[in-house]
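Hello again,

I reread your note about wanting to compare the complex against the isolated chains. To keep things tidy I'm splitting this into two emails, and this first one only covers the full assembly. Below are the input lines as submitted, including protein chains and any nucleic acid or small-molecule components. They are followed by the predicted structure of everything together. The single-chain runs will come separately.
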Amino acid sequence: MSSTPVGVIGEFTDPNAISAAAKKIDQAGYRKWDIHTPYPVHGLDKDMGIKRSILTYISFAGLLFGITNAIAIQWWTSAVDYPLNIGGKPLFAFEFSVPVDFELSILGTAIFTVVGLFGLCKLPTWYNKYQDDESFKKATDDTFVVTIDADDDRFSAEQTAAFLTTLGAANVHLVTAP
Amino acid sequence: MTDHGQIRESLVLGNPSIRDVTARIASIVESKITIKYLLTLGFTATLAGWGLFALYYTITTGIGVWGLNNPLGWGWDITNFVFWIGIGHAGTLISAILFLFRQKWRTAINRSAEAMTIFAVVCALTMVLSHTGRPWLFYWLLPFPNQMQMWINFRSPLAWDVFAVNTYFTVSALFWFVGLIPDLATMRNYVKSEIAKKVFGVLSLGWTGSTRHWHHYEIAYMLLAGISTPLVLSVHSVVSFDFTVGILPGWHTTIFPPYFVAGAIFSGFAMVMTLLVIVREILDLKQFITLKHLDNMNKIMLATGMMVGYAYILEFFIAWYSGSDWEKWIFLNRMFGDYAWAYWAMFTCNVVSPQVFWFASNRRNIPLMFIISIFINIGMWFERFTIIATTLHHDFLPASWGYYSPTWVEVSIFIGTFGIFLTLFLLFAKFVPVIAIAEVKSIMPGAQPAHHHHDHEHDHVAVGSGTVTEKVH
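Full-complex prediction:
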C-alpha cells in the first residue's frame, strides 16, 4: 500500500536540548517545520529563527479605529446631527469625550488583537495533519515535539529522521497519510 | 533583585512532574460529579432562581415594588451594581497587573479570578439593567439611529458608564478565552470521553502548541494584559464619575476615582479569597494554591484596606477644610446620622479588621482569613450603601428628607445575584480547567532553558522536595 509521507516527528523533554536543537534545525536550512510545546518556552521562537510578529501593528490599528470612531460618533451625534442644549454645556468638547474615547480605543485594540491572533495562527483550524500521531498528542502534556514537514525542500524521510536523532530526539518516526 | 542566594518558597508544592500537573488539574473535569457538588449546585441554583423570580416580579410590575422613593432614587440597585463591578476588579488585577509585574504566583489563581470577574460583571449588568425599569429598552442606552432621531447624551457620566462596563465585560471575556485556549487543547488530548473530546476540540480551535503560534500568542497576551491594566483603573473611575459629576455634597469629590479603584481591588481580593479557600479545600488544590499565595493576597488586602481607610479619613478632613457647610454636615451625618450604623459597620469591617494581617501567622491562618474576607465583603457593600444613602436621604430642604429601607424584592434580587455568581462559579470549577495549566507549567523549576534566564532575572534550581532557590546572575 502506497502512503504519502507527511513529515518526521521527534520528541524532546529537556528545555535546554530543544533550544539547542531548534538552532541547529534552523541552521540546517529547514523552513517548513515546527516545535509544539505544552507551554511557551522562553527564547525558543528566536532559536527557531521566527521573525517578530506583526500583531502589534494590527493592535495599534485597532486602537486608532476605536478612538477615531469614538470621537467621530460623539462629535457628529451631539454637535452636527441633532444639537441639543443640555445645561448650557458645549455641544462637543474634547474633555468630556475622553472616557468614551478611552473605552472604545481599548475595545478596538482588544478585538483587533484577538482577531489578529486568530488570523495569524489560522485559528480555528479543526484539523492538523499530525493529529492522530501519539507523539504529537504529548505536545499539550509534557513533551516538546519537533515536526519537519515532508513538503520542505530539504526533506528526505531517512536523512531528516537521522538528523533529528543526532540532535537527541527520542522516538523519531515518519508520519504517513494513507 | 539584589539579595543573592535568597531562598524562596516554592509556588508548586510536592515537586510534581509536568505530567502530574496536567493530570492533577485535568482530572477534576473527568472526575465523577458527587452528591455534595450537586447539593451545593442545587442550593446556589435555588438562590439564583429566587432572585430571578424577584427580577421577573420587578420587571412585570415595575420598580415601584422596590423601597425607592423620593428623595432616594438609588438604593440597593446601584449599591449592588458598584459592589459587583468592584468584585470583578481583582480578577483583572491578578491577571493583568500582576502579569505585567512578572508576579509568578499569579498563575495559580488567575484563571479562577478572571472567571470571577466575568460572573461578577454579569451580576452587575443584571442590577443595572433591572434598575432602568424597562430593561427591554436597554438598547436606548446605545447610540443607534432611531425613529425619534435622538442620540444618547454623551455629556452624561451615565452614558460613559455604559461604554465602560460593556468594554470591561467584552475585554475580560476575550482575555479569559485567549488564556484558556492552550488549556482547552490540553483537555482535548487528555479526556477519554468522546463527547468531551469533541467539545474541548471545538473550543480549543485546533490549538497544537506550535511555537510559531506561541510567538503570536505571547504578544497577544502581553497586549491584552497591557490594555486591561488601564481599563480596570478606568472602569471604576468611570463608575465613580456617576457620583462625582453630580454636584451633591458627599459625592462631588476628586478623591473618588482612586478611592473607588482601591476599594474595588480590596473587595475583589476579599471575594477571591473567600472562594479560593473553599475551592482549594473541596477540589484539593493545596499543592497549587499554597499558603504563600494566600499570604500574598492578604498582604494586598492589608495594603488596599489601608488606602481605603486613608480615603475615609481624608474625606472628613477635606469636608472640614472645604469650608462648605453642606459638605461638613453631610459627613457628620454619615458618622452620627440615621445611617451611622452602616457607616460604622463599613469602618470596622474595612479598616479595623484587615489590621490582623500585619502578623505573618495571621496571614497564614486559613479560618481567620476566611472570616476577615467575609467581613471585607460586607464592609465594602456597606461602603457603597453609605455613599449612596447618606447623600440622598437628606436633600437640601428638610421637607424632602427621608429614610430608605429595601423591600423583600430588592433583598431577594441581591441574594439572587449571589446565587447566579456562585452557580456560574461552581459550573466553571467543575467543567473548565480551574488553574491555568500551561502557565503553571511554565514557571515550574527546570521548565525553561537555563541560558535564556538573563532576560528574566533569575533561574530556578530544585533543591529537595518543594524548595526552590533563586540565583541571580
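For quick reference: The CA atoms of residues 6 and 176 of chain A lie 5 Å apart.

B.
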